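Input structure tokens:
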């Protein structure tokens, strides 16, 4: 079952200007990215943006209209040519897990190992049940398991044939929030332990950030930014990414002669303002962690709404000029709606766009 590819020679997966259409309706418009061995990538975006179509093209379920898909340097898709899915050495975890209800957990995991000798097959199944914490459930049937346990079975089955690449299509969407967050961390640990390259598709940015090393924000069939979760949050490439990732609000500002940006809350220094001529109207992204509660500050804002989050409140604050901002405040600062509190800016990454930019 060893890969025929030399992992040290090439990225495990490469998409080069991939285009796809359904009945002449363009769906993907030049998608390009690559992943090195052992890296976890994610395609993140709203419903209908094309992210699942990318996954289906990589798997070989859909032909492409233009561009190339390569696995470890070998072309598996181009216009007029598609290597069948079963020859791509790809494992897939589907949204609904797609387990066989009449097979036990152990037999589900062993399903893709029919070419192995019985002893080798049994050893591989035992290894994967141990990795995924399912040893106790080897003889159980899928209907006897929780959603999280079924998800682990699907993962173990996909890992069993030792694929070169694992694709995960919204694998946690049927689970509750707490279980989804816990399992996303567990799945990342398993993938890193197995040194497996993987691509996750999701609309949940917390899930994406928990699992992935690199995330591609997908919009309208294009990857509008491919970066680490940290850079997506602090260095969004455009207004769409800034709006889509994390929470925040935009305040109007103006570029000064010195390149700094002036807004109602004060002066922001940084390199962003230097990109535009003095007097340029801009919008500045302020995250909740950019606005600090400070009783000593002369700058005041009124509490309009608050959401209790255990260790913190997320306050919606009204500024004298009418704008609203968000602020994360430790929960021992429990202020009433309508109360005015002191705030100050502490912005490490200035993110601004020309006013009216899409």
């Amino acid at each position: 079952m060893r890969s025929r590819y030399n992992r040290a020679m090439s990225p495990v997966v490469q998409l080069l200007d991939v285009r796809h259409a359904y009945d002449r309706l363009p769906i993907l418009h030049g998608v390009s990215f690559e992943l090195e061995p052992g890296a976890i990538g994610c395609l993140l975006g709203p419903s209908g943006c094309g992210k699942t179509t990318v996954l289906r093209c990589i798997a070989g379920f859909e032909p492409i209209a233009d561009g190339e898909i390569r696995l470890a340097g070998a072309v598996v898709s181009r216009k007029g040519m598609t290597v069948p899915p079963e020859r791509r050495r790809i494992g897939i975890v589907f949204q609904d897990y797609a387990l066989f209800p009449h097979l036990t957990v152990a037999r589900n995991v062993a399903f893709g190992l029919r070419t192995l000798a019985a002893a080798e097959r049994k050893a591989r199944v035992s290894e994967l049940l141990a990795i995924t914490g399912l040893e106790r459930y080897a003889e159980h049937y899928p209907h006897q398991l929780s959603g999280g346990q079924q998800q682990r079975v699907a993962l173990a089955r996909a890992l069993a044939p030792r694929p070169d690449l694992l694709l995960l299509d919204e694998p946690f969407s049927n689970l509750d929030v707490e279980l989804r967050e816990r399992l996303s961390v567990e799945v990342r640990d398993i993938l890193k332990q197995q040194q497996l390259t993987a691509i996750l598709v999701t609309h949940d940015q917390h899930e994406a950030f928990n699992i992935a090393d690199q995330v591609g924000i997908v919009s309208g069939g294009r990857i509008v930014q491919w970066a680490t979760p940290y850079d997506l949050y602090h260095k969004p490439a455009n207004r769409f990414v800034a709006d889509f990732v994390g929470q925040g609000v935009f305040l109007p500002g103006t570029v000064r002669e010195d390149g700094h940006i002036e807004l109602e809350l004060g002066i922001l220094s940084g390199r962003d303002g230097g990109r535009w001529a003095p007097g340029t109207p801009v919008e500045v992204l302020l995250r909740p962690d950019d606005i600090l509660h400070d009783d000593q500050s002369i700058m005041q804002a009124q509490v309009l709404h608050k959401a209790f989050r255990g260790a913190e409140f997320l306050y919606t604050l009204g500024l004298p000029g009418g704008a609203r901002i968000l602020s994360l405040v430790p929960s021992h600062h429990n202020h009433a709606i309508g109360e005015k509190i002191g705030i100050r800016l502490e912005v490490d990454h200035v993110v601004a766009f020309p006013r009216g930019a899409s």
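The chain has eight helices and 21 strands. The longest strand covers residues 25-35.
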